Amino acid sequence: MPVLQPIVNIAELLYQKGITDVVVSPGSRSAPLTLAVARHRHLRVRVMADERSACFVALGMALQSRRTVAVICTSGSAVYNLAPAVAEASFGQVPLLLLTADRPHEWLHQQDGQTINQVGIFGTHVKRSYDLPADYTHADARWFIERTLNEAITLSQLTPAGPVHVNVPLREPFYPTTDETFAYGPVRTIEALSAQPTLPTDSWHRLLTEWEQSERTLIAVGQLPYNTALLTVLRKLSEETGVVVVGEVVGNIPRNNVFITRTDTFLAGIGETNARALQPDLLLTIGNSFLTRNLKTFLRQYPAHRHWHIQPTIDHINDSFQSLTTLIPADPLAFLEKLFADVDYQRFLQGDDEDDDQQGFLNRWHHMDREATRLVEKTLAEPTQPLTDWLAVQRILDQLPDASILHLANSMPVRYANLCGLDERQQISVSSNRGVSGIDGCLSTAVGAALMTDKLVTLLIGDVAFFYDRNALWSAPVPPNLRIILLNNDSGHIFRIIDGPSRQPELETYFETPHGYTARNTAQDAGLTYIPCNSPGALGEILSDFFQPAPTAKLLELKTDKQANQDLFLSYKASVKAFQSR
């Protein structure tokens, strides 16, 4: 099949450019691409029948490995099924390479099956979209295909990482004859060297001056991967300069005696006097989106006089708190390490005088954080309370194996986890689909993450998100290092927490959508160990064994009552209101 040699060579280019993993959804039009990667001895190929789930699995693999993962699907509506994961990868800055088979374009609008307009189908949710030629006989066409794949793979990895689309029109024949073999290459790879922006000396000195003039400095950490070096420099900045460091569970900021992690509690309904006392002069932000609405509202209502946002490239102006004064193109870790070194040296030259204003500012934040911790602990301390989602999440997080991976599904699980937090000693790496924060691929993403590591991966997920994404467990063998914890309250529980829908008579039918399902049959079909639980006492006994290694993945289904969940949360909100009115 000499005409298809450039398609066969795509598999070799993937390997030569550092891609080792490909997720394929079966289809006839995509057969040349599928066979090319399947027969390449250096590529790991996984098959997922559902394209939507397949792309989320690839996203989870790329989240875990921080390397580009390729996705192959056939033409037509199959391509549209990649879109939810593509959008998440775009806003979550996750590298994916989308290889979509297509009919030659002259067959568009000719009543041919599985034919839609696939060129640019993902719009601005991909970093770039390419369209290959349908005919490969001319040398320039082969040169164009090779150059395009080099560019597409490199672009997916360049900061900020993200999805890139390559549309591949294919003519018949799709399948080799029985006596044909594939020969890969030779191919030409084009290396793209990376570089870090360097701030001019005068700009750096201006920033140092602003830092020194600030009496109340706060660093807020958005969503970021777990990074021990970053945690180390943040701790140093707080302990040695009195800077307030605020973070969330999705930013991998753990609970300790240094970082502020309870903002969702103590900033809820905060009064004017306390808010002014916590208002920063200088705000530094790093990372992607923030989860906590109360933190975002506070920083918008009481903006810093100066706000620096540090990100590696200036592709968009991120002004989520509506107070940005300086956008700094730098790697956050490198910037903070240099900042600490220079500030520490300056303090040494000046005799290391204590900054009373900054220390007092830090003490006020710590006081509020400790008070919020006591309030949360008191909320969950009632010895006779039934099993609720929140109580279960606290006990689960406390018993997670050290140095394991936690994936948090959207809606209430990620919020409960943020209210609870993780202890620093556990060294848990947290991830979540917070790019666009949808529930549609949370299970698939966790499956993908577990495929890329030997560490234990625990998914905390609600019932609506779980049943929506059951196809994650359909095709590929579920990795045995995956632990699924399903909070099943038979509803979209978040709608009982949000003030608006909770007051509507249509709440149950049109918002919560109760279903009556359990995960028993799903677990059986997928070959998972299934464990049901409906009491706090039983949960404690189950968890001691649940996280132990096993030959198959495990699913723990916690049956809770939505009214009990609501009552506990309303009690918590009443306690917060009383706390703020003191």
From TrEMBL:
Requisite cofactors: thiamine diphosphate; Mg(2+); Mn(2+)
Record's keyword annotation contains Thylakoid: no
An example molecular function term from Gene Ontology annotations: magnesium ion binding
GO process terms (BP): menaquinone biosynthetic process
EC number: 2.2.1.9
Keyword set, alphabetical order: Magnesium, Manganese, Menaquinone biosynthesis, Metal-binding, Thiamine pyrophosphate, Transferase
UniProt pathway annotation: Quinol/quinone metabolism; 1,4-dihydroxy-2-naphthoate biosynthesis; 1,4-dihydroxy-2-naphthoate from chorismate: step 2/7; Quinol/quinone metabolism; menaquinone biosynthesis
Domain Thiamine pyrophosphate enzyme N-terminal TPP-binding: start-end pairs: 10-120
Pfam family name, one: TPP_enzyme_N
Leading EC class: transferase
Family annotation (InterPro entries): DHS-like_NAD/FAD-binding_dom, MenaQ_synth_MenD, THDP-binding, Thiamin_PyroP_enz_TPP-bd_dom
Co-factor remark: Binds 1 thiamine pyrophosphate per subunit.
Reaction it catalyzes: isochorismate + 2-oxoglutarate + H(+) = 5-enolpyruvoyl-6-hydroxy-2-succinyl-cyclohex-3-ene-1-carboxylate + CO2
Keyword Secreted: no
NCBIfam families (UniProt xref): menD (TIGR00173)
Record function comment: Catalyzes the thiamine diphosphate-dependent decarboxylation of 2-oxoglutarate and the subsequent addition of the resulting succinic semialdehyde-thiamine pyrophosphate anion to isochorismate to yield 2-succinyl-5-enolpyruvyl-6-hydroxy-3-cyclohexene-1-carboxylate (SEPHCHC).
Quaternary structure (record): Homodimer.
Similarity comment text for this entry: Belongs to the TPP enzyme family. MenD subfamily.
Stated name of the protein: 2-succinyl-5-enolpyruvyl-6-hydroxy-3-cyclohexene-1-carboxylate synthase
Native source species: Spirosoma linguale (strain ATCC 33905 / DSM 74 / LMG 10896 / Claus 1)
Record gene name: menD
